[in-house]
Amino acid sequence: MSTTWKIYMLAIVSFLVGTSEFIIAGILDKVAADIGVSLAAAGQLITVYSLAYAFGTPFLMAATAKVDRKRLLLYALAVFVAGNFAALAFTGYGFLIVSRVILALSSGVFVVTALTVAAKLARPDKQGSAIATLVMGFSTALIVGVPLGRLISSVYSWQWVFGAIGLLGLLGMALVAYTMPRTESERPIPLRDQVRLLANPKIAVALLITLFWIGGYSITYTYISPFLLDITGLSERGVSIGLFALGIASLLGSKLGGFGTDRWGYRRTLTGGLALHAVILVLISLLAHSPAFVVPLLMLWAFAAWSSGPTQQYHLITLAPEASSIMLSLNSSVLQLAMAAGAGVGGVIVGQSSLGAVSWIGAVSVAVAALVAAAAFGYFKPASAAWRRKEAELAAKLGAQDLG
Hints:
Elements: H1 3-26, H2 28-35, H3 39-63, H4 69-89, H5 93-121, H6 127-155, H7 158-179, H8 191-196, H9 201-221, H10 224-232, H11 236-264, H12 266-286, H13 291-319, H14 324-352, H15 358-376, H16 385-403
Helix pairs in contact: 1-5, 1-6, 1-7, 2-3, 3-5, 3-14, 4-5, 4-7, 5-6, 6-7, 6-11, 9-13, 9-14, 9-15, 11-12, 11-13, 12-13, 12-15, 13-14
């Protein structure tokens, strides 16, 4: 098997891992009704997953640094399969939380290891493309996995979604076992080295952008299915179509983010994308009861939200190019923390206020991210001395013309 096909195979397994993470948001109302808890309580399944991913993955990667990468991929997938089958076999709220923790830890180890293996398999001039292929496989879960899972859960039961992922995970293990070469272990990156970077004010501010951006996105996305059902009034089929459209737009937005970073620079692309993200969430809030407007707005929302992904990663790398892997690891942890915080805040909003308020609060959080980015990039600073000098010269010329 060629190197390219091996990388695509890892991307396919990454698709399964991504589906296991995102699927809860697509079937949240069904899970809540089946296990007898509120929407807010069901939303905390996303919080638990993100917290376990954010805090557990760095420690597990450090502890398994000396393990052969192929073997580590197989170990991670074995635990991943067990976590999915646990969700199928045990339906109580407590058991489901345990299942989400198992899935988060195994998914985190698999994703980080797969990115490392893909980079090693590819030629030096193709490493970026290899990593992008894996990320595309993961994000494709939003396009295919989530709406398909919603469809399966509406016909059968939501538990069977996890059962299907578990079975496909077994197939993924077989593919890894028979096609992946043995890859030597990694040099462990001490956690203190990762934490030390946080003392840099520019890096801390940059990670703050991720926190508010993803937090605002998560507040809305966690409850998107019940929002579309109860507030917008879509049918089951309409929700599946809406989630599919959202997934396609997210992929296109990610592509535009990479293009915009190269074409217009990361400052303009990131700030503009965040500002558009916030505005669209406001429009969704205002037009929430109109299906004709909400579905197109959902696509624009996903398009704007995901355009910031590659741009923000590039921004972080520019702040510490000598420690790019650590920066991306930190950003991944902050991203998962933001997902957890967003799901938690969304649960409080749904429980104390109303389901329709999630998009308003999400818009506020993303707007904060846009303001922090604009301030960090110097858009609020007074005009530079050179620009003020040019203005003075222009004014003097105009004055001289007037006098003449």
